[in-house]
Write a structure and sequence with these properties.
The protein is about 40% helix and about 10% strand. It is α/β, with parallel strands linked by helices.
Length: about 500
């Protein structure tokens, strides 16, 4: 996944250095501009996710640069710039000194998202404002682009995962709150998005609040919002995530990390659909559906007094998302999906895995689950010496890590329910063909094998419903026609999860 890109505009080199050091440590990609003129030129060439910009700068100040970036309004100092801004929708946080607070208020009226007083900046508040700005922008962009309500298809045919999908089909249309549990990296948010996509709110907002990513003191402000004067620096009203997602779905990630004070306010929202913004004596109604996730044992946390039992029981359905080692049948499909995705991103040609490489992948315990598999496939694409992944291409944490005991012969049925490589391959092929609506060239590309190899496999496994004339079934030309038809089926390989939008 591409890093969030931030443009920092400040004519003070010490401020630029300090901000950059802090923000890059959070995993963001930083670009610096020494004044408003340089910022305007950069915004005509590249789109940024967030802009942090000082107001008082020599030459072109922050207010003039803001007018150009948000509204393409030029002034005398930038009349010679021809490229229009690519950042009219980008949230801009203004940086100001005490004496220029009125200018900051004016900047917000002119389209800035928020502002920070330079002399009073606290690290947690800076981080919170960046995260809130990103969430706000994602909600706004999703509405504008009309990308909400798309259906998600998750790769997975194992019995353990099929149970999840069957349950999702039944509960998604309801208004019931759902709690997703499971280890880190298993794909809890992917399942949450699938529930949302199949609900009656699929054409409305899906908003995420990562309860562990913000400081405990800032979590309430992030979710419930505040009123002007609620605390130092709160000079305007601010909507929280719940109000921003009105009519939609809110996903509370890592809900087990919340404080008792936060849980008290959350219970009111869950139970009565009411919130009270910080600094307000008025109760407001909100219309959202709640989905949540945690990797901690909430029942144990309830017994230990760390999590409210009444909140726990407000989630009617609890779904445990299985670890990757519990659904090894899905691993070949998932591995091929990510191999293809990272190969496209890096301009590499791939043909799939050697049997030895796949055998090692199947034996690995995958303590980091899907996230670890993603990391492994990205490593492989960069390091592989040929178009086929071999044992020597795999990272050391896979080849030397703790392994499962698989049967000596991969072609014989496994004992104790462990799948064979042959079973995995057939399952992967079936999933790919279903995923691409039978278009074999697309299925082959998804699996990382040639079109001819896929045809041979279809014959070996006697998948008669997918046989063409060359395989002993329908006309081969139909597959070629479907493959080239505009808007034909196929996976979106730029996504971060095995989900087709």
């Amino acid at each position: 996944m591409a890093k969030t890109s931030i443009l920092l505009v400040d004519d003070d080199v010490d401020h630029r250095t300090a901000f950059t050091f802090i923000i890059k440590d959070w995993g963001y990609e930083m670009t610096m501009a020494k004044d408003g003129f340089e910022a305007v030129k950069l915004c005509g060439r590249k789109r940024f996710d967030i802009i942090l910009m000082d107001i008082k700068m020599d030459g072109l100040d922050g207010l003039q640069a803001l007018a150009y970036i948000k509204k393409n309004l030029k002034c005398e100092a930038i009349e010679n710039i021809k490229a229009e801004s690519l950042n009219t929708q980008t949230p801009i946080i203004m940086l100001t000194g005490y004496a220029t607070v009125p200018d900051a208020v004016q900047a917000m009226k002119d389209g800035a998202y928020d502002f920070l007083i330079k002399g009073d900046i606290e690290i947690d508040i800076l981080k919170l404002k960046i995260e809130n700005a990103m969430e706000h922008f994602k909600l706004k962009e999703a509405k504008v682009a009309g990308l909400l309500g798309e259906q998600n298809i998750i790769i997975g045919r194992s019995p353990a995962f099929k149970k999840i999908l069957e349950l999702v089909e039944r509960i998604a249309p309801s208004m019931s709150n759902v709690l997703l549990t499971g280890e880190s990296g298993v794909g809890k948010e992917v399942v949450a998005r699938l529930i949302w996509s199949k609900s009656s709110r699929a054409n409305q907002v899906f908003a995420t609040c990562n309860c562990s990513a913000v400081s405990k003191d800032s979590a309430e402000d992030s979710l419930f919002g505040h009123r002007k004067g609620a605390f130092t620096g709160a000079i305007v009203d601010r909507q929280g995530i719940l109000k921003s997602a009105e009519g939609g779905t809110v996903f509370l990630d890592e809900i087990g990390e919340t404080t008792p004070q936060f849980q008290t306010k959350l219970l009111r929202a869950l139970q009565d659909h009411e919130i009270q913004p910080l600094g307000s004596d008025q109760v407001e109604k909100v219309d959202v559906r709640f989905l949540a996730a945690t990797n901690v044992e909430l029942e144990k946390e309830v017994r230990n007094g760390n999590f409210r039992e009444d909140i726990y029981h407000r989630f009617t359905f609890k779904i445990r998302v299985p670890a990757l080692r519990e659904r090894l049948e899905d691993l070949p499909e998932l591995a091929n999906y990510y191999l293809q995705r990272y190969a496209l991103r890096n301009g590499r040609e791939v043909s799939g895995f050697s049997s030895q490489a796949m055998d090692i992948l199947l034996k690995h315990q995958w303590p980091g689950n899907i996230r670890e598999l993603q990391n492994c496939m990205e490593y492989v694409v960069v390091m592989m010496a040929s178009d086929q992944v071999t044992e020597s291409d795999l990272p050391e944490f896979v080849t030397t890590g703790p392994a499962h005991k698989l049967p000596a012969s991969a072609s014989e049925p496994a004992q104790g329910g462990v799948i064979t490589l042959k079973d995995s391959e057939k399952s992967a092929i079936l999933t790919a063909l279903e995923f691409t609506h039978g278009v074999k060239s697309k299925a082959a590309k998804l699996l990382g094998i040639s079109r001819k190899t896929l045809g041979d496999k279809i014959k070996v496994y006697q998948l008669t419903q997918y046989m063409s004339s060359k395989d002993g079934g329908e006309d081969e030309a139909l597959d070629d026609y479907e493959d080239e038809a505009p808007g034909g089926p196929g996976p979106d390989l730029d996504d971060d999860n095995p989900v087709r939008h």
